[in-house]
TrEMBL record:
UniProt keyword list: Endonuclease, Hydrolase, Lyase, Nuclease, tRNA processing
Keyword Ribonucleoprotein included in the entry's annotation: no
Protein name according to UniProt: tRNA-intron lyase
Residues in tRNA intron endonuclease catalytic domain copies: 163-244
Region (Disordered): 71-105
Composition-biased stretches (Basic residues): 76-86
GO cellular component annotations of the record: nucleus
EC id: 4.6.1.16
Reaction catalyzed: pretRNA = a 3'-half-tRNA molecule with a 5'-OH end + a 5'-half-tRNA molecule with a 2',3'-cyclic phosphate end + an intron with a 2',3'-cyclic phosphate and a 5'-hydroxyl terminus
Top EC group: lyase
Keyword hit for S-adenosyl-L-methionine: no
Amino acid sequence: MDEAHLLVTKGKAVLVKNTRLTKAPTDQDRARLEKHAQEIHEQQAELVMSQRREEIVQYAEKITAGRLLKASGQHVSKRMRRKMRKGSSQPNAASTSTPGSEETLPVDLQAQKEAVIAEEMSRVKPPSREFTCYPVFTECPRTKATDLEPVALDYPKTDAERLRCLVFADLWERGHHLTCGAKFGGDFLLYSDDPLLYHAFAIVVCLEKGTSFDGHDLVLWGRLGNSVHKTVVLASLVEDQVQYLSLCWSGDL
């Protein structure tokens, strides 16, 4: 909410109410959504079948070669290969071949390979629609500009919320990046650049005017920051100006 308040205040965003969401979808809306869902399913099914065919093509040549060796009587079973590794004599291909096997060998190896691919693909079934991955809409696909009505942002309401908004805006103006700091026991996490690329270097704790704390609190904040390798920054409002106090351990403890 602090970021939303800043964007609205700076004129970077407008808060609106979508009146269409209060209305039930029409039959035309349902038909359009069903058509869109079917198109997504067909695209994903085509992609799955294409990837499966590529996998089969990679092994089709080996399968074809194995079948040719087996048809010519030159195929060596796993048991025979184990015997050969143990020092047994080489099997005589001529004695294991069947009469006339050379005449039965296919001349067109490419045709044999295509037959193997077709045979394997006939066993592959396209994924059913229940396994389709549908995109998550970030906006209502049936919304029109006339459905949007500007509304006021009902935030902040309390002194604590006002302080958070002021601190967020002040740090943002200084060029910092901020995210929620609740998981580290603070109000914000402070980044020098994109949070997706960098770690936070500070935990910001907002303290309302008149908030009292003792040495136990200072030790608590200091140990917290030290354990996660971050500086704890206490932010408060002094004469309508945001003031900061940084806490971090120094030296060897």
